[in-house]
Amino acid sequence: MFLRLIIYRIKVLLKNRVLLFWTFAFPVVLGLLFNFAFSGLDDQGQLETTKIGIVSSDAEKTENFETVLYSLENDGKPVYQGKQMSKKQAVTQLSDEKIAGYYEITPTDISLAVSQSGIPQTIMEEFLNQYLQQTTEIENLIASGSVNPQAISEDLFASTNYVAEGHQASSYSVKSFYFFTLVAMAIMYSFMWGLKNANDQQANQSANGMRLSLLPKNKLTVAIANLLASFVLFYSQSMIILAIFHFVYQVDFGNRWGWILLIYGVASLATLSLGTLIGNALPKLGLQQKISIGVGLSMAMSFFAGMMGSQSLKYWIDVNLPLLGKLNLVNLISDSLYQLFYYQSLNTFYINLAWLVGFTIVFMLLNYFFERRVQYDHL
């Protein structure tokens, strides 16, 4: 009976051509436009040596930092060309666009200052993140007293693996970067299927809701069957879209396909559950009103994730309000794909994956809370 409920629900959803357009045809068409717009950017955007500034108040710390920084190469050319300068000189040269940014090194911290968002600035930010992560690990090992500090220093700063990681990040695909946000927005649109489920489960919203309320089945069983049906349908759609992006539009997603498929699955469950939650939490609003709320939320998340020419805002949020970035589903999804593509280390990816799993669990629990409280005076 449970399997029949799932099959029946898939058949019902397949008849909804409007939602099929927005969750399948629209991302494909928008991807085609993205392909026309960004297909030449990778050829134009081959990385040249980036000029940067170093503002230092700690000579030893700066020496270690520069050792790693200047060891990074791209096709035999150094990725960075740096010069030590005063803070005033750095600010002036950054304002005049003579340097892409500058690192400020103090005895307690290393920070990055940029005036715009772009490929060099993004790579500079990630290099700093990776460097700080590794140096923190070293400091912890030294503090434990179980290792030789000099040996650790040599292993880190002469490590070919570390240089390779920085080099991988420098093999930047601008086209892939933009498509990651499109993929995240497309996955976010699955909220429409979740919203449709909630609408069809409510007797005061649809005739389907009345019939489902009269079934001699537990409401939770029906809700789970509907969720699984919409997940199977949307995930199948997403795999076709992913195949079109990769094989037809020639978008490079990297080679970590297992993790990519997992992100698609977890993110789809999260956004489906979010759509159901919108429907359950606002039972007195009509379906179109709820869809408008969901679309508005999706567009806002996409904007803050850097999709609409707002990369500088996304960068500012990542630096100054990182929690806000973690609360943005579109940003979590696009960043996860970004991390899988560019970085060898998966530490930050695991954090994003944990946030997505957490959102999925919270949304499902809230849906259960709302659905078990639903009662009707009459049908």
UniProtKB/TrEMBL annotation:
Its main location: membrane. It is a multi-pass membrane protein. Keywords: Membrane, Transmembrane, Transmembrane helix. InterPro entries: ABC-2_transporter (IPR052902), ABC2_TM (IPR013525). It comes from Enterococcus alishanensis. Residues 18-368 form the ABC-2 type transporter transmembrane domain. This is ABC transporter permease. It is found in: Membrane. The chain crosses the membrane at residues 20-38, 177-195, 220-245, 257-279, 291-313, 349-370. It comes from the Bacteria. The keyword Chaperone does not apply.
